[in-house]
């Protein structure tokens, strides 16, 4: 979530920030960036090539930087910016929540298929 200059009467936990479209676009950008990044790297890890996840991660990080304007997509970085007061508490908390949600979703989707041995082909067609 990119930080913008604040007016002199800025309060770190301002409820006015919740009404800002820019604030919610930033939260959505964090969620989507983390979802796309984790999903692409997990998808590339299914490849037999050892470098595929690293190459996919680098390419998707570059693409996200160009298209979404550079979301952090990393909760550790967001917490560091929060601790150094580069982000407000509200932006930091919702940014970490969005990033964790975005990272959890692509992880949870393939798991049932893996546990059940589902290969994408119905048993009647094998």
Description:
By secondary structure, the protein is mainly alpha-helical. It has a single domain, classed as Up-down Bundle (Glycerol uptake facilitator protein), CATH 1.20.1080.10. The chain has helices at 21-44, 52-68, 75-83, 89-108, 111-116.
List keywords for this structure.
single chain, 126 residues, mainly alpha, Glycerol uptake facilitator protein
State the CATH superfamily name.
Answer: Glycerol uptake facilitator protein
CATH hierarchy class name: Mainly Alpha
Q: What is the tally of helical segments?
A: 5
> What is the N-to-C order of secondary-structure elements (H for helix, E for strand)?
HHHHH
CATH architecture: Up-down Bundle
The profile of the biggest β sheet is: none
Low-confidence stretches: none
**How many discrete structural domains?**
1
Structure classification: mainly alpha
Strand content: under 5%
Rg over alpha carbons:
18 Å
Measured between the Cα atoms of the first and last residue, the distance is 48 Å
At a glance:
It is built from five helices and no strands. By secondary structure, the protein is mostly helical.
